[in-house]
Design brief:
8-stranded mixed β-sheet; about 30% strand; 4 helices
Length: about 170
């Protein structure tokens, strides 16, 4: 696995076919994971997941798998997508076994820093389901602000100009 960068407890590596079994376990966990990332309730097949990851690799997507530094365990994936100019949407998915350990907040802070300082983004957006109060609270604590809401989703963003000069994102 090719390490790209890291944070205190997380090693961020490029998405790889080697982790397809971990990805499948995560995205097919309807109760703890999948219900927060989309409407699909039918399990993905290995072929579907391989094709999805291969497409991400082929298109040089800004997608990283997160590995726990101390154990080498798979945590989840994070990605910047829907990028247009200096604006991108951020997303994250964490396996059930690695939830509630602070990895989401740590990943968000590191990815926000990476987005603004390495990718040159000026605005980072994210969408959270209205029923995911835990994630909404974390995003607020990290400095994201709600700019729109409907019955299903809350839309939030952070702008580089809102950060203090030379201060890491979300602090």
């Amino acid at each position: 696995m090719e390490k790209v960068f890291e944070s205190e407890r997380i090693i961020f590596v490029k998405a790889t076919l080697e982790l397809v079994p971990d990805y499948l376990e995560m995205v097919n966990d309807i109760e703890h994971v999948a219900r927060f990332i989309g409407d699909r309730r039918k399990p993905y097949t290995e072929d579907e997941e391989r094709a999805y990851i291969q497409d991400k690799i082929d298109n040089n997507a800004v997608m990283f798998s997160m590995i726990e530094r101390s154990t080498g365990k798979f945590i989840g994936n994070t990605e910047f997508f829907s990028r247009k100019d200096n604006d991108a949407e951020w997303g994250i998915v964490i396996t059930a076994a690695m939830q509630d350990k602070g990895y989401g907040k740590e990943a968000l802070l590191r990815m926000t820093d990476y987005g603004f300082n390495e990718l040159g983004l000026e605005r980072i957006r994210l969408t959270v389901f209205t029923g995911n109060a835990r994630a909404f609270h974390v995003y607020q604590k990290c400095g994201f602000r709600e700019y729109h809401r409907n019955n299903v989703d809350i839309f939030m963003d952070m702008r580089k100009e809102d950060l203090k000069v030379n201060e890491p994102a979300g602090r």
